[in-house]
Design a protein that fits this description.
There is one protein chain. Helix 8 crosses helix 11 and helix 17 runs parallel beside helix 19. It is globular, with a radius of gyration of 36 Å. The relative contact order is 0.10. 50% of the residues lie in helices and 9% in strands. With 624 residues, it is mostly helical. It has 19 helices and 19 strands. The structure holds 1-deoxymannojirimycin. The site of 1-deoxymannojirimycin has 8 residues, from helix 19. Pathway: Protein modification; protein glycosylation. InterPro entries: 6hp_glycosidase-like_sf, Glyco_hydro_47, Glycosyl_Hydrolase_47, Seven-hairpin_glycosidases. Its cofactor is Ca(2+). It is a single-pass type II membrane protein.
């Protein structure tokens, strides 16, 4: 076999050896071996070259040629212009190439140690970034607070049981209708029989009714329905949506609803979803003062305030109604951020001057100054006061600062806002720049329950006084129902010019399935066991069933003074979360969710008292 002449890369000729050219066989064999070795070397150099060429050739995808240039190159019709364009592209490719080569060379010049250090630092940085974005997937285990009173709550007496069964049937009708016509939408249009939503949920479709209704279903023993809701949440509830939502509403309905469902059922998914959502709300606190925006875009994290709010202000009842849920979030996750956010709000408010000791409804999150000096225990103010009291109750009565703030606020409210009408009805008016408007909202009626709930623990000898005040408010609100044709209460009612507990303006005559009056009946029932509260609750339940029930669920009505009312065609999610829950509890025994162990958030979602002696929250001084 002859060995072909080979042209080495250098151009120097390698002598060809023919068989028998050497008389020294051993030498010949040696030569053959080295020849093979050289051949192998050359071959491997060639392969390396091919590989190198493959990897170092410019990646054309990184260098965008215009589609025109591509077309011209492929057709071969190349004009001088396009030649110039191509040449400049080639120059760019060469330059890029050169730069990449230089960078690589520089890197290679560094010592192994320096390179390793660089890699480690970069790895740590990326890990840190991911950690910041990451929502805790498995949350730290915390002892579940001892849950008292999660039971059937059988009231015993058959006639009470019958009423309770009726409320359960109403819940089933509301839920089944939503299930059939509005599933996955935020709310339901029970007449049009389709989904519904309002601006508080942005343009999201997050099944607000499902989340809001879960704990009511659980308490009523509607377990198949609860499971159905849970499945929807597991599979569909996603908060990475480009929707601008109300921080307050999402907190009280979604976070509150999910946390209550978690505590009652023990299903981890609810806790995980609550935490995911809370993470999405946190950017709302990125304001110069730490007072959160009213709205936040769940995707971008951009926040802003309602256009109608005085001087770009945030609303007292909105930023002041986060405490309960946020404290529970910190408790469950060990993440102090939630607790710190709400404590920061509290501290900031404590430092501010209060006109006549009252908290105005508006506070500017940029300047930290009050907006208009309007104070209300109804819309825009209500649940701020409620959460001061409930913060204290939820802390097993250890959060003395919250209790003191509540007591001071209520004292100022009593002095400036609470009056008796000529007819002897106690009402809570609205304070507007030093003037008392003698008008009370349906929303304000929750305060009867709040006064009763706060009676025990009030300073001095005033427990009896506050229980009495609660009873008077309950009576006034009942009057506002009783003085209508439908026996359902209007949105707002006056105590002026001979008018008592009746709405005057047409746009205040509606009833939208709100819970506040029934809520107060329930608290009063728990504290007094006066049968009139069950009686009043039953009147309201019957009126709702008679006038608000339609084929596709329950609807609000536009005029409670008309025997022929028109519907607003909305089944509000709070009807299932609150109105029906309070009614059900009113006809249950006190053993079901006792108030010593549970605190209801402002959307009626029960959260357990955290018996953590001495404020032992992560983020506070002491440790959990
Ligand atoms: C509910 O969403 C809450 O109770 C809130 O605090 C104000 N009122 C509505 C229902 O009326």
């Amino acid at each position: 076999m002859t060995t072909p002449a080979l042209l080495p890369l250098s151009g120097r000729r390698i002598p060809t050896l023919s068989p028998g050219a050497s008389s020294f066989p051993h030498h010949r064999a040696t030569l053959r071996l080295s020849e093979k070795f050289i051949l192998l070397l050359i071959l491997s150099a060639f392969i390396t070259l091919c590989f190198g060429a493959f990897f170092f050739l410019p990646d054309s995808s990184k260098h965008k040629l215009s589609s025109q240039a591509h077309a011209r190159l492929s057709t071969g019709h190349v004009s001088p212009d396009s030649m110039e364009e191509e040449e400049s592209l080639r120059d760019k490719i060469r330059a890029d190439h050169e730069r990449a080569l230089q960078e690589a060379k520089q890197k290679l010049r560094k010592s192994k140690k320096a390179l390793l250090h660089e890699i480690q630092t970069e790895k740590a940085r990326v890990a840190q970034e991911l950690k910041k974005k990451d929502v805790p997937r498995s949350l730290p285990p915390v002892p579940m607070p001892k849950l008292v009173g999660v039971n059937d709550g059988d009231p015993g007496e058959p006639d009470v049981k019958e009423k309770r069964d009726k409320i359960r049937e109403m819940m089933k009708h509301a839920w089944d209708s939503y299930r059939q016509y509005g599933w996955g939408h935020n709310e339901l249009k029970p007449i049009a029989k389709k989904g519904h939503s309002t601006n508080i949920f942005g343009n999201s479709q997050m099944g607000a009714t499902i989340v809001d209704a879960l704990d009511t279903l659980y308490i009523m023993g509607l377990h198949d329905e609860f499971k159905d809701g849970q499945e929807w949440i597991e599979q569909n509830l996603d908060f990475s949506v480009n929707a601008e939502v109300s921080v307050f509403e999402v907190n009280i309905r979604f976070i509150g609803g999910l946390l209550a469902a978690y505590y009652l059922s023990g299903q981890e998914v609810f806790k995980a979803k609550a935490v995911q959502l809370a993470e999405k709300l946190l950017p709302a606190f990125n304001t110069p003062t730490g007072i959160p925006w009213a709205m936040v875009n769940l995707k971008s994290g951009v926040g802003r305030n309602w256009g109608w709010a005085s001087a770009g202000s945030s609303i007292l009842a909105e930023f002041g109604t986060l405490h309960m849920e946020f404290v529970h979030l910190t408790y469950l996750t060990g993440n102090p951020a939630y607790y710190q956010k709400v404590m920061h709000i509290r501290k900031l408010l404590a430092k501010m001057d209060r006109p006549n000791g009252l908290y105005p409804n508006y506070l500017n999150p940029r300047t930290g100054r009050w907006g208009q000096h309007h104070t209300s225990v109804g819309g825009l103010g209500d649940s701020f006061y409620e959460y001061l009291l409930k913060a204290w109750l939820m802390s097993d009565r250890t959060d003395a600062e919250a209790r003191k703030t509540y007591d001071d606020a209520i004292e100022a409210i009593e002095r400036h806002l609470i009056r008796k009408s000529n007819g002897g009805l106690t009402f809570i008016g609205e304070w507007k720049n030093g003037h008392l408007e003698r008008k009370m909202g349906h929303l304000t009626c929750f305060a009867g329950g709040m006064f009763a709930l706060g009676a025990d623990g009030s300073p001095g000898d005033k427990a009896g006084h506050y229980l009495q005040l609660g009873a008077e408010i309950a009576h006034t609100c009942h009057e506002s129902y009783d003085r209508t044709v439908l026996k359902l209460g209007p949105e707002a009612f006056k105590f002026d010019s001979g008018l008592e507990a009746v709405a005057v303006r047409q746009n205040e005559k509606y009833y939208i399935l709100r819970p506040e009056v029934i809520e107060t009946y329930w608290y009063m029932w728990r504290f007094t066991h006066d049968p009139k509260y069950r009686q009043w609750g039953w009147e309201a339940a019957q009126a709702i069933d008679k006038y608000c029930r339609v084929g596709g669920g329950f609807s609000g009505v536009k005029d409670v003074y008309s025997s022929n009312p028109t519907y607003d065609d909305v089944q509000q999610s709070f009807f299932l979360a609150e109105t029906l829950k309070y009614l059900y509890l009113l006809f249950s025994s006190d053993e079901l969710l006792p108030l010593e162990s549970w605190v209801f958030n402002t959307e009626a979602h029960p959260l357990p008292v955290l018996r953590l002696a001495n404020a032992t929250m992560p983020g506070s001084q002491a440790k959990r």
